Amino acid sequence: MPTVEINPDELRELTGHEDKRDDDLKTDLFGLGLEYEGETEDGEFELEFAPDRLDRLSVEGVARSLRYQYGDARGVSIPSTNTPDWTIRVDPSVPDERPYVTGAVIRGVDLDDDALDSLIQLQEKLHATMGRKRAKGAIGIHDLTMLKGTAATEGTPTIRYVGVEPDGDRFVPLDADREMTPVDVLEEHQTGKTYADLVSGYERYPAIYDDIGLFSFPPVINGRRTEVSTDSRDLFVEMTGTDQWTIDRMLNIVCYALAARGATIEEVTVEYDDDESANADSNGSRSAAGGRELVRPDFSTKTKTVTHDRIESILGIELSTEEIIDLAERSGLEATLVGDDNGTAEDRAYEVTIPPYRVDVLHPLDVIDDLGRAYGFNDLEPRYPDVGTIGGRHERSRLENAARTRLVGLGFQDLLNFHMISEAENFERMNLEEADSGSDVAGSDNSGASDPAYGAGEPATIKGPYSEDYTMLRTWVTPSLLMVLENNTHRRYPQDLAEIGFHAEVDDGENTGVSEGRAVAAVLARHDAAYEDAKARLQAVVKSFGGDLETPPTDHPAYIDGRTAAVVIDGEKVGVIGEVHPKVLVEHDLEVPVAGFEFDLEALQ
Q: Contact, 103 vs 236, CB < 8 A?
């Protein structure tokens, strides 16, 4: 879980509870779901936070949550904004891979050392989480007094978001003492080397200009001319990315943090050259000659509807309408009764308003979780269920345990890996292509029939992943075992690994749209690993369950041609077995042969 460093003295000051002892603060923070992990050398709290609550990535956000918990703040708070003075104009030359931009002007902020450190930490934490290491969204914060906007026809200062040649204009980047071209930054500057892979494949690089020249090279580095210091009072915040919604929500979190420091938020007009560029989020947009305009930041709210009976059912307590509205307000939300207050719990519902900085509220259950925290989960009284039952092991669990026992008896080490994975690990690094509808991606048996390779099904992906390492549910288990072998190259061989694990793929025939299952996967990594070794162990497992095993030759991109077979149990094709392809071994830095198999657990029933 990610951590954030918070100065307890600053937290006391921002909450207005300067008499709070450290132990009391830790208890209050735990009530919010922030776990104390220790202290830094400077005495700052290291807090582990839920990765969905990105509004708590700074001391300002944590203080806001505490003020609601203490009852010092109530309801949805939206900072007031001044009308736009600055404009960001998006040029048609901007790379198609990074077409979106947003921004805001911050005036009158008091940046002492602590406030500046908090702002930098918030920037980097947002980069690492919602920005997916700057790939999806990157933040640039500049000293406004160092910018000179080109006068537009409306009389407002304008800066330009454009695409430039790699060896185009020169500028002095942060932590440098000489002018460099964008390609020089990627090749010679330490920060440029770190993030070079984000833009190195572009024909033109993203760049932001004012009337003086280039001052920002997103998503890599800002220019030294506009560097922010404790003397800065007016700031220009710009964000670029691959998705308008993402960068707009990142901007909201930054604006709320700076507003907590007493800053005034000033809107910025974003001018796109065509309508398509702004279609991702039309809130606050208006048509303009030759294109479309967005007014940012977008502080519009959204609503969720939750029923009274569901709140009581989930929390296990009885609440009045007034109590639910009060809990919502103490959570930073606002609830309005829909229906008759004198009716039954099933007839009553609430329309709950969500503030702009909350990116985590996707379902009514998220609202109920907030209400429960405001009530206090520790204050819920335990009670016996109305119906007494005797627990027992599920039949699927019995089957899993039995199969796991057989594998351990054959010398395999039992593993439990994450169900989530990335597309690169699941497909690309396994030399496998995702099967499109009607496509034939490897996989033909000796009958000449062709079908998608095992594991090549369409993945169930996460719409807004917070990490590029976990973007989808794995479609097969073997890639997870290869990842473990890759991490264990410093250990002795042989390494015989097995896992009985979850996998899923998109299936329109299922009510949920996704078919789920469990597979038995195993790999043998040793200097003499061969197909015969894997088949002997597979045969022992299947035979112990009374199954009939056949292994007709087949093709699979992850395995060597001629050393691969389909796993057919009781006449049904349920998996694959073979020697792992050299391309896959090289991709995982493995220097010994690997043989393995994978098949559906249900085939053993």
A: yes
User: What kind of architecture, by CATH, is found in domain 302-379?
Assistant: 2-Layer Sandwich (3.30)
Please tell me the distance from the alpha carbon of residue 23 to that of residue 319, in angstroms, as a whole number.
31
| DSSP structural state of residue 114 | H
Whether 3-70 shares its CATH topology with 302-379 is answered yes
Q: Any binding-site annotation on 91?
A: no
Cα–Cα distance for residue pair 256/63, rounded to 1 Å: 12
Fold of 81-296: Phenylalanyl-tRNA Synthetase; Chain B, domain 3 (3.50.40)
Query: Model confidence over 318-341: pLDDT tens digits?
Result: 999 999 999 999 999 999 998 776
- Sequence letter at residue 430: M
Q: Pick the residue with more confidence: 541 or 278? A: 541
Residue 292 has pLDDT above 50, yes or no: yes
- Characterize the bridge pairing of strands 472-473 and 420-421: antiparallel
User: Is the pLDDT confidence value at 528 over 60?
Assistant: yes
Nearest to 306 by CA among 322, 318, 332, 324: 324
Please report the pLDDT score of residue 290 as a whole number. 55
Q: Is residue 366 marked as binding?
A: yes
Flag whether pLDDT at 133 surpasses 80.
yes
How would residue 345 be classed by pLDDT, with cut points 50, 70 and 90? low
Q: Which residues lie below 8 Å from residue 404, measured CB to CB, with a gap of 6+?
A: 414, 498, 500
Among candidates 591, 480, 583, which has minimal Cα distance to 525? 591
How do strand 3-6 and strand 413-414 relate by DSSP bridges?
unpaired
The residue to which tokens 């499109």 are assigned: 436
Match domain 395-604 to its CATH number in 3.30.930.10, 2.10.10.90, 3.40.640.10, 3.30.9.10: 3.30.930.10
pLDDT of residue 298: 96
Cβ distance 76 to 332 under 8 Å? yes
Q: Are 333 and 367 in contact (CB under 8 A)?
A: yes
What is the topology classification, in CATH, of domain 3-70?
Phenylalanyl-tRNA Synthetase; Chain B, domain 1 (3.30.56)
- C-alpha 97 chain-centroid distance: 19
Mean pLDDT of the chain: 90
Helix (H/G/I), strand (E/B), else coil: 326: helix
185 vs 164: CA distance, rounded Å: 14
507 assigned to a ligand binding site: no
User: Is this structure's pTM higher than 0.85?
Assistant: no
Amino acid at position 449, single letter: A
Torsion of CA 487, 536, 408, 404, to 10 degrees: 100
Q: Which residues lie below 8 Å from residue 5, measured CB to CB, with a gap of 6+? A: 40, 44, 45, 46, 47, 121
Per-domain residue ranges for the chain?
A: 3-70, 81-296, 302-379, 395-604
589 in a labelled binding site: no
Q: Are 424 and 433 contacting, i.e. CB atoms less than 8 angstroms apart?
A: no
| Longest pairwise C-alpha distance within the chain | 83
Structure tokens at 592: 């010994």
Tokens of 438: 């009607």
